[in-house]
Amino acid sequence: MAAESLLTESALGWSIFAFVLLVILAFCWVYIRKFQSRQESEVVSTITAICALAIALITSALLPVDIFLVSFMKYPNGTYKEWAANNETRGQIEDTVLYGYYTLYSIILFCVFLWIPFVYFYYEERDDDNVNKCSQVKNALKYTVGFIIVCVVLLLIGAFVPLQAPPGQNSTQWEKVQYLFEELGSGHGLPALSFSISSLTLIGMLAVITYTAYGMSVLPLNLIKGTRSVLYERLENTEDIEDVEHQIEKLKAKCKDGRPLSSRDRHNLQELEGKLQVLRRRGRHLEIAERNCCTKVGSALRPFKILLGVFFILVALLFTVALFISNLDKAFHSAGISTGFIIFGTNLTNPLNELLLALQPVFPLDYILITIITMYFVLTSMAGIRNMGIWFFWIRLYKIRPKRTRPQALLFLCMILLLIVLHTSYMIYSLAPQYVMYGSQKYLVQSHTPSVGLVPGNDTSGITKICDADAPKDECTVTRSYLFLHKFWFFSTIYYFGNWAFIGAFLIGLVVSCCRGKKSVIEGEVEADDSDMSDDEYVH
């Protein structure tokens, strides 16, 4: 009976995971196909981008399965189910999840440090017409070696870096949590893998602060504001064209009698001719947008977009409040900076944490909510990247536009999204620490109450408590994800301060987005550095 129950519940968790996997693959294919350039699309870059994005999302989808398995080992009264009463059985179940993390994280390292860089540099070399296929592969491998060296260095550092943190004020609780890290084992390469993934997650944190925080404000406000009227934009564009043509005629009139134009006038004439070319291209795009059925459908769905925008902004505010409460809780009740601000239970009421704990027993409601949260982070990150473009400090490297994104830009986009999704695991822990660490587990505490009656003595009864660091060693099982996230205390410390930076960046982005007006219906489609040939793939 216990074996059948174990098989049923494990099959349920993994079947939902398999369904989400199929949904993730379909989403990645649609998204990449939507943005890739039709003229420059390549099979290898497309497959690489889809696989990289899918692996990142699948890794996040493994988190609810991890939480589900540790939670369903126990009854609501705090006692273990029959099939989970044996420590060896519980260890085997958690090892399954652990090996899943091993596999996915190893694939992520392969993508980040070998496959994506190789494909990227291969297409960079392809721009040179004088280079043959062999030279392309050779040069791409040459540049990829640098990434491989970085990966090896990170793995070596992770394998030998000391895990002992300085003793904090709450040394007893810290020692208990530290024992959990040692229990996970360091003989299977976990520290090396965890250090490498934590380093990538650190880069993902910077991307989250830059792109996701801004996307969380710009996406809902754009939905609420809507776009400008196509008819008004066409009228305004026509007036601008007439004004520029009039200025060009005035400049050309100066040289009708044979006199050459001054250098300043020639410079102004070149600028005006370039501006006129952009305005005419803009007019063509506006004309296409006016005839496009999607524009008409979008106008009909305007009330729905407003409601969706209001929902998104409320979700963003909920996340921000939950993150603020969680950080405040860590600041006041954690073991301190020397232990990575690890918190033992929740001392302040966190709305998102309470919601997830309430939904967790009714599987798969919590799985659906976690998937929605993950996809929300991805969508807002995509919105942030699309509005900002891909930058290296003050230099914009690529633009992300539907049907016009180069293969190299797509690879860059998927690399950023992969790193962002890696960091969402810690973000979800910050939003709901109790849920991510123990799920809905409880444990039974024996209490002795004086007996009432003729026979003197004590009656033994049990009190159910929510699992935390004070629980006995064998009474609560910590998720493998939590141990991955907190293997190195100094990374947890950096993530903690990164959460404060994320809150600040979101508030700044919210103010900036509120101050901006409505965006154009052809936002990002026409820019001065585009060529006329780039319109061909858009029109067709």
From TrEMBL:
<feature type="transmembrane region" description="Helical">
    <location>
        <begin position="143"/>
        <end position="163"/>
    </location>
</feature>
<dbReference type="GO" id="GO:0061462">
    <property type="term" value="P:protein localization to lysosome"/>
</dbReference>
<feature type="transmembrane region" description="Helical">
    <location>
        <begin position="44"/>
        <end position="73"/>
    </location>
</feature>
<keyword id="KW-1133">Transmembrane helix</keyword>
<feature type="transmembrane region" description="Helical">
    <location>
        <begin position="192"/>
        <end position="214"/>
    </location>
</feature>
<keyword id="KW-0813">Transport</keyword>
<keyword id="KW-0472">Membrane</keyword>
<keyword id="KW-0812">Transmembrane</keyword>
<feature type="coiled-coil region">
    <location>
        <begin position="234"/>
        <end position="289"/>
    </location>
</feature>
<protein>
    <recommendedName>
        <fullName>Lysosomal cobalamin transport escort protein LMBD1</fullName>
    </recommendedName>
</protein>
<feature type="transmembrane region" description="Helical">
    <location>
        <begin position="12"/>
        <end position="32"/>
    </location>
</feature>
<keyword id="KW-0846">Cobalamin</keyword>
<dbReference type="GO" id="GO:0031419">
    <property type="term" value="F:cobalamin binding"/>
</dbReference>
<keyword id="KW-0175">Coiled coil</keyword>
<dbReference type="Pfam" id="PF04791">
    <property type="entry name" value="LMBR1"/>
</dbReference>
<dbReference type="InterPro" id="IPR006876">
    <property type="entry name" value="LMBR1-like_membr_prot"/>
</dbReference>
<dbReference type="InterPro" id="IPR050854">
    <property type="entry name" value="LMBD1_LysCbl_Transport"/>
</dbReference>
<feature type="transmembrane region" description="Helical">
    <location>
        <begin position="102"/>
        <end position="123"/>
    </location>
</feature>
<keyword id="KW-0458">Lysosome</keyword>
<feature type="transmembrane region" description="Helical">
    <location>
        <begin position="488"/>
        <end position="512"/>
    </location>
</feature>
<feature type="transmembrane region" description="Helical">
    <location>
        <begin position="367"/>
        <end position="397"/>
    </location>
</feature>
<feature type="transmembrane region" description="Helical">
    <location>
        <begin position="409"/>
        <end position="429"/>
    </location>
</feature>
<feature type="transmembrane region" description="Helical">
    <location>
        <begin position="306"/>
        <end position="325"/>
    </location>
</feature>
<keyword id="KW-0170">Cobalt</keyword>
<comment type="similarity">
    <text>Belongs to the LIMR family. LMBRD1 subfamily.</text>
</comment>
<dbReference type="GO" id="GO:0005765">
    <property type="term" value="C:lysosomal membrane"/>
</dbReference>
